[in-house]
């Protein structure tokens, strides 16, 4: 194990991570970034489902695919991997023994599944009363949907996100649209991270552990933010506006000669600067478009004129000119352009770590910047079972013969 730096926030915390796929591993990765010793428990021979969610896969030093899918790499840096069959009595006992050395347990099994193994919160807190135990499920531990499996795509639809995401229904391509990433999974992982840290703070003050019940649907409803309160305040359900804004015009994307840009005009003065930059001052003098309320009323007349104006120049020409004029704007970058961006490079968001199979793995660093206890970036996503012998010896005192016997029985 690479010892955590004494300057990390959570170098005194150990996490037993029984999660897989994305929401739970994202939480565990946040805790690992902050210095926690995260022990990832995986199925012997298979591991986390996302290890095989490719291509693309990480390539070895000869350019051949390894068994590590890029999806898995995104959510598992900074952890140690052990393989363990928790359906076996021996595997269940190893989990109990490890819990005695851990502060936090994360799990995302189906409701009630861990109870069958004697590994649920009530069973484990009997041996570790100050344990922080976090369950991540689709719908939570109670309610009529509790026993349903939860998938991010379905949750985005059920939780209202897709009702406000996508092009307007009356335009070509209109209709509901999911996000390009699994936002309910990721946000659940973020909320779970906050809840775990809050529970650890409470434990430090009182000595009391606790149970955390995180549900993807709860998180999706909560993250609707102002759209949810718009509905709760008015009784009117918001609708899809695509890349436009329901109350401000122009505040949307436009196609240029070689790509797309975002123009976010916030007031009438910025609007005049925008059309002046495009050689169309008449569009600011026209009373139908002179003020934002009139532009909103006449959106369908104005936007095609602006689209024609913007199409005449390249993306970079528009960005240079609008930035000089003080009009809020920005590009819509592909990911190759993101990582070529000088600001992204200056902030060091691309992270290269040594890897036992590939020599090096390229990842995205944690965005958390902390002056006294910065995140650690010294351990790549582990190979399947890479640390099994190490963890069993270090924490449970098992010798090579004992571990070999467990391996022969398929327990590890």
Automatic annotation (TrEMBL):
TM segments? Answer: none
**Classification via Pfam families:** CoA_transf_3 (PF02515)
InterPro entries from the entry? CoA-transferase_III_domain, CoA-Trfase_fam_III, CoA-Trfase_III_dom3_sf, CoA-Trfase_III_dom_1_sf
Which region ranges are annotated with the description Disordered?
45-64
Keyword terms, alphabetized:
Transferase
Name the PANTHER family on file.
SUCCINATE--HYDROXYMETHYLGLUTARATE COA-TRANSFERASE
Q: What is this protein called?
A: Formyl-CoA transferase
Q: Which organism is it from?
A: Noviherbaspirillum suwonense
In the record, what lineage is assigned to the organism producing the protein?
Answer: Bacteria, Pseudomonadati, Pseudomonadota, Betaproteobacteria, Burkholderiales
């Amino acid at each position: 194990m690479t010892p955590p730096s004494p300057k990390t926030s959570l170098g005194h915390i150990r996490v037993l991570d029984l999660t897989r796929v994305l929401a739970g591993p994202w939480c565990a990765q946040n805790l690992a970034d902050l210095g926690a010793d995260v022990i990832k428990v995986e199925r012997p021979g298979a591991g986390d489902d996302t290890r095989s969610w490719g291509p693309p896969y990480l390539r070895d030093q000869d350019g051949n695919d390894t068994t590590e899918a890029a999806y898995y790499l995104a959510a598992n840096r900074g952890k140690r991997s052990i393989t363990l069959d928790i359906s076996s009595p021996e595997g269940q006992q190893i989990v109990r023994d490890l819990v005695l050395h851990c502060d936090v347990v994360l799990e995302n099994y189906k409701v009630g599944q861990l109870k069958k193994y004697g590994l649920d919160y009530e069973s484990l807190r009997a041996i570790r009363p100050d344990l922080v135990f976090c369950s991540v499920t689709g719908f939570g531990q109670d309610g009529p949907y509790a026993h349903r499996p939860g998938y991010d795509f379905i949750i985005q639809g059920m939780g209202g996100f897709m009702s406000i995401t996508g092009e307007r229904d009356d335009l070509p391509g209109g209709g509901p649209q999911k996000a390009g990433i699994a936002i309910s999974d990721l946000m659940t992982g973020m909320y779970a991270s906050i809840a775990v840290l809050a529970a650890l703070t409470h434990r430090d003050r009182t000595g009391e552990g606790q149970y955390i019940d995180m549900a993807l649907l709860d998180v999706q409803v909560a993250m609707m933010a102002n759209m949810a309160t718009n509905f709760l305040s008015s009784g009117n359900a918001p609708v899809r506006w695509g890349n436009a804004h329901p109350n401000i015009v122009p505040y949307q994307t436009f196609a240029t000669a070689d790509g797309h840009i975002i123009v976010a005009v916030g007031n009438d003065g910025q609007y005049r600067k925008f059309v002046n930059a495009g050689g169309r001052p008449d569009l600011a003098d026209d009373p139908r478009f002179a003020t934002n309320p009139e532009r909103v009323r006449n959106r369908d007349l104005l936007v095609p004129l602006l689209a024609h104006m913007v199409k005449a120049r390249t993306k970079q020409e528009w960005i240079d000119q609008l930035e000089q004029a003080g009009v809020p704007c920005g590009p819509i970058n592909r990911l190759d352009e993101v990582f070529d961006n000088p600001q992204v490079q200056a902030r060091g968001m691309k992270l290269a770590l040594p890897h036992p199979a590939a020599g090096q793995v390229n990842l995205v660093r944690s965005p958390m910047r902390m002056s006294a206890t910065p995140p650690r970036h010294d351990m790549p996503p582990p190979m399947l079972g890479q640390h099994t012998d190490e963890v069993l010896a270090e924490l449970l005192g098992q010798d090579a013969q004992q571990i070999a016997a467990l391996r022969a029985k398929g327990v590890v």
